[in-house]
Amino acid sequence: MKNLDIAKLRFGTTLIKKGFAKMQKGGVVMDVTNAEQAKIAEISGAVAVMALERVPADIRAHGGVARMADISKIQEIMHEVSIPVMAKARIGHFAEAQALESIGVDMIDESEVLTPADPYYHIDKRKFTVPFVCGCRNLGEAVRRIWEGAAMMRTKGEAGTGNIVEAIRHQRMVTSMIKTLKEMDSSEIEKLSETYSQSYVNSATTLTNKKITKNTIVFEEYEYVTVIKEITEILKEIKKIQRLPVVNFAAGGIATPADASIMMQLGSDGVFVGSGIFKSQDPEKRARAIVKAVTHFDEPDIIAKVSKDLGDAMHGIEIGTIPPEQMLQERGW
Amino acid sequence: MVKDIDVGVLGVQGAVSEHLESMRKALKEKNICGNVSVVNNEKNLNAVDALILPGGESTTISRLIQESNLRDVLCARIKNHNLPIMGTCAGCVILASEISDKRSDIFPLNAISMQVARNAFGRQKQSFEKQIEIKGFENSFNAVFIRAPIIKKIWSGCNSLSEIEEGIIMVQEKEFLAMSFHPELTNDTRVHCYFIDMILDYM
After folding, report:
1. Are B85 and B177 in contact (CB under 8 A)?
2. Which residues of B touch A10 (CB under 8 A)?
3. How far apart are CA A45 and CA A91, in angstroms?
4. Which of A1, A35, A231, A286 has the fewest Cβ atoms nearer than 10 Å?
5. Which of residues 92-121 of A touch B (CB under 8 A)?
C-alpha cells in the first residue's frame, strides 16, 4: 500500500469535527452494552452506537461512581459494526478522553451520565483530533461547550428515566433563548456573554482566591477578556443563523416513536436513545420504529403506523420522585 | 435556451440542508432558475429532474431507501437514464455496483461501474482535509474527507475525475457523478456547478 502524503493532509480541523456531526443528522444514536446489541442497533438503522458498560437506567439503579467503560468492551463493539462508535468520558476527565481517542472511538460524549471528575473545568475539547458531543440544559451551557470545542450538542434531558419532560424543557429553553437573541443589540449580547462566562470566573476565583481581572487566565491558556470576546462572537452567530452553530440532538428520556417526533418537531437534528431501546420488551422493533419516526417526524400517519404493537416501553420514572442529588442534569455547568 | 431545473436532495438521513444550500447558491451563481427541494417519497422522487444523494451513514440511508419504498423508482429512473444523480461520500457508496467488504448491510443502486471500499482511510480521527486537483477545474479544490470511502476499481464507461495517492476519489459515468468527499461542507460551489452543467446536458 502506498503511503499518504501526510504533509498535505489536515486532521481534526473544526470543519472535519463539525462535519462528522452533520453526517449524523436525521439519525438515531443508540446506547449499547455489547456486540449483540450493537448489531441489532446497526441493522435497525442506527447512525451510530454509544458503547457503554451499563445503560443510564442501570447506572441509576446501580449507584456508586460511573466511569468510562472497559476498553475491551468498547473495542468489542467497534469490531462488530461498521457505523461510528461513540463512548462516554466523565466531565473534565481528559485522560479518559485521551484513552478513548487512542483506541479510535469516532466521537466522545463528555457526559453527565457518568460521575463528574473535575469540579472546576470541562475538557478543553480543542486539544483533541476526535470530535466531542456535550449535554446542555440552556443556551449558556451550550455556548460554553461550543466555545470549549464541542462539535455537537445534545439536550441533557434526564437520562435513564424514559420520561421526555426534561428533554422538552431543555430544548425549549435553548430555542426560546435563541429567539430572544434576535431582539438584543451588541451591548446586550456582550453583557449576556459576560453572564455566560461567569462559570469560568467562579472556578478561577475558587482556585486562586484572588479577584479576577480582564487578564486573569480563567480556562486553560485563555484570559477572561478572550473568553468574553469569543463567546460574544458565538452568540452573534447564533443570533444571525437562529440556531446553534453545531448539530443539536435530543437526549435524556426518549422512549417512543412519538417522543422522537416531538423532539424533531421542536427543532432537534436527531436523537440519542439510551435506555429506551434495550430496556423495552422488543428492542429491535422499537429501534426500527424510532429510526423511521425520526426520518418521517412530520408525517403523523407514519408515526401512528410505527407506534403499533411495539410491546411495553421501558417502565420509566416520574421526575418528582428522584432525590435532587440523583438528578443527572445538575452535573456540569 | 436555459430551462428551469428541479433538483432534489434525498432527505432520509445525513447532511441534507448543506446540499440544499450549496445547490441553491450554485444555481444563483450560474444565473439559472431552478428549484431545490427535499425528496423523501415516491411522488417527489418522480417529479425532480436530478437528485443528490448526500453524505450520512451509508447503511442507514440504504436501509431507509428500501423502507421508504424509494428503491424501485430510483432503479427504474437510473435504468431509463432520465435522472442525473450526484452522490457524495455515503451517496457515492450507494451509487456503486460493488462494495469491496463482504458485509451485506447495504444495497447499492448499481448506477456507476465502480467498486467502492467503505471507511477506506480508517476511523474518524483519520478524517482529513486536502487540496485536490479535479479534471477540468482550473484551481485546486479543498476536499473534506469524513470516514470516507475510496473508489477501488472502475470499468466500462466510468471515468476518473480526481485521484489522490490512495486511489480514485471522484468519477463520472454518463449522467452520474460520485465523489468520496463533501463539497457541501465548504463554500466552494464548483462541484455543484459542474453537476448543474451535467443536468443541463441531459435535459
Report:
1. yes
2. 128-130
3. 29
4. A1
5. 101, 104-107
Looking at the structure of chain B, the number of domains it has is 1
Contact between A207 and A195 under an 8 Å Cβ cutoff? The reply is no
- Interface contact A26-B101, CB threshold 8 A: no
- The CATH number of residue B154's host domain is 3.40.50.880
End-to-end Cα distance, chain A: 47
Structural domain span for residue B193: 5-201
Q: For B12, which of A5, A8, A295 is closest by C-beta distance?
A: A295
- A22 and B118: CB-CB below 8 Å? no
User: Quick check: B1 pLDDT over 50?
Assistant: no
Per-residue model confidence as pLDDT tens digits over A56-95: 989 888 888 999 999 999 999 999 999 999 999 999 999 9
Q: Which residues of A touch B130 (CB under 8 A)?
A: 8-10
Across the interface, which of B14, B67, B129 has its CB nearest the CB of A25?
B14
Name the closest residue on chain A to residue B16, using Cα atoms. A25
pLDDT at B158 over 90: yes
Reported ipTM: 0.96
- A88 given a catalytic annotation: yes
What b/e sequence results for B31-54 when a residue is b if at least 16 CB atoms lie within 10 Å of its CB, and e otherwise? ebebebeebbeeebbeebbbbbbb
CB contact B144 to A (< 8 Å): yes
pLDDT tens, residue by residue, A322-333: 988 889 998 988
pLDDT digits (tens, 9 = 90+) for A22-56: 999 999 999 999 999 999 999 999 999 999 988 99
Reported confidence tier of residue A5, pLDDT bands at 50, 70, 90:
low
